[in-house]
TrEMBL record:
<dbReference type="GO" id="GO:0003678">
    <property type="term" value="F:DNA helicase activity"/>
</dbReference>
<dbReference type="GO" id="GO:0016787">
    <property type="term" value="F:hydrolase activity"/>
</dbReference>
<dbReference type="InterPro" id="IPR003583">
    <property type="entry name" value="Hlx-hairpin-Hlx_DNA-bd_motif"/>
</dbReference>
<dbReference type="Pfam" id="PF01330">
    <property type="entry name" value="RuvA_N"/>
</dbReference>
<keyword id="KW-0238">DNA-binding</keyword>
<keyword id="KW-0234">DNA repair</keyword>
<keyword id="KW-0963">Cytoplasm</keyword>
<dbReference type="Pfam" id="PF07499">
    <property type="entry name" value="RuvA_C"/>
</dbReference>
<dbReference type="InterPro" id="IPR000085">
    <property type="entry name" value="RuvA"/>
</dbReference>
<dbReference type="InterPro" id="IPR011114">
    <property type="entry name" value="RuvA_C"/>
</dbReference>
<comment type="function">
    <text>The RuvA-RuvB-RuvC complex processes Holliday junction (HJ) DNA during genetic recombination and DNA repair, while the RuvA-RuvB complex plays an important role in the rescue of blocked DNA replication forks via replication fork reversal (RFR). RuvA specifically binds to HJ cruciform DNA, conferring on it an open structure. The RuvB hexamer acts as an ATP-dependent pump, pulling dsDNA into and through the RuvAB complex. HJ branch migration allows RuvC to scan DNA until it finds its consensus sequence, where it cleaves and resolves the cruciform DNA.</text>
</comment>
<dbReference type="Pfam" id="PF14520">
    <property type="entry name" value="HHH_5"/>
</dbReference>
<feature type="region of interest" description="Domain III">
    <location>
        <begin position="152"/>
        <end position="202"/>
    </location>
</feature>
<dbReference type="InterPro" id="IPR013849">
    <property type="entry name" value="DNA_helicase_Holl-junc_RuvA_I"/>
</dbReference>
<comment type="subunit">
    <text>Homotetramer. Forms an RuvA(8)-RuvB(12)-Holliday junction (HJ) complex. HJ DNA is sandwiched between 2 RuvA tetramers; dsDNA enters through RuvA and exits via RuvB. An RuvB hexamer assembles on each DNA strand where it exits the tetramer. Each RuvB hexamer is contacted by two RuvA subunits (via domain III) on 2 adjacent RuvB subunits; this complex drives branch migration. In the full resolvosome a probable DNA-RuvA(4)-RuvB(12)-RuvC(2) complex forms which resolves the HJ.</text>
</comment>
<dbReference type="InterPro" id="IPR036267">
    <property type="entry name" value="RuvA_C_sf"/>
</dbReference>
<feature type="domain" description="Helix-hairpin-helix DNA-binding motif class 1">
    <location>
        <begin position="72"/>
        <end position="91"/>
    </location>
</feature>
Length: 202
């Protein structure tokens, strides 16, 4: 199994990044690829999960081991595939997710894309009491306010990018714009969309 990839970050889009090492470019699918935006064309180390199935081999990438462990726990739940697991990771802090599972908060869990009431109950059934041993209080405590702000900004930019794609813009057009939007730090997707449209019109 491939535990991590270390090399030069050469490309980012809304679903994946490409890391080049020893002349080989590895495409890595991530929950929030643009969290690595500030390291574009620099050396990175991305924690990976090598997902093998009959018709494909996919590398999934994460910021740290905690994210990877939660991903592996999620895909062990009946009704949760890699796509749904990534959607959850893209929109939550590990501490918040673990707490919601422990308090059996169906409403919180059904707020994620692709998670209905039945799947939320299955998550609780399969994972309650099992996350604390992996995500220690010390590890959870390491999530800083700065990290929380970054994740919120990343989510807002992702929403803005998806809205712009619906208007017909391509990844090639949007990638440099997304990088600028992340510097904005605005929490309002509408403001980011208006700013992006002004940039694209130039």
């Amino acid at each position: 199994m491939i535990a991590y990839i270390q090399g030069t970050l050469t490309y980012i889009n809304d679903q994946s990044v490409v890391v080049e090492t020893m002349g080989v470019g590895y495409e890595i699918v991530c929950p929030n690829p643009f969290v690595f935006q500030h390291q574009l064309n620099e050396q990175v180390k991305i924690v990976t999960f090598h997902h093998v199935r009959e018709d494909a081999q996919i590398l999934f990438g994460f910021k740290n081991e905690e994210e990877k462990r939660l991903f592996t726990k999620l895909i062990s739940v009946s009704g949760i595939g890699p796509k749904s697991a990534l959607a959850i990771l893209a929109n939550v802090h590990i501490a918040d997710f673990a707490a919601a599972v422990e308090r059996e908060d169906d409403k919180f869990l059904t707020g994620f894309p692709g998670v209905g009431k039945k799947t939320a109950r299955q998550i609780i059934l399969d994972l309650k009491g099992k996350l604390g041993s992996i995500f220690t209080l010390e590890a959870v405590g390491n999530i800083s306010q700065e990290d929380a702000g970054e994740d919120t900004a990343n989510q807002t930019v992702s929403e803005a990018v998806e809205a712009l794609k619906a208007l017909g813009y391509t990844d090639k057009e949007l990638n440099p714009v997304a990088a600028e939007l992340r510097k904005e730090g605005a929490a309002d997707a509408d403001k980011l969309i208006h700013k992006a449209l002004r940039m694209l019109a130039k």
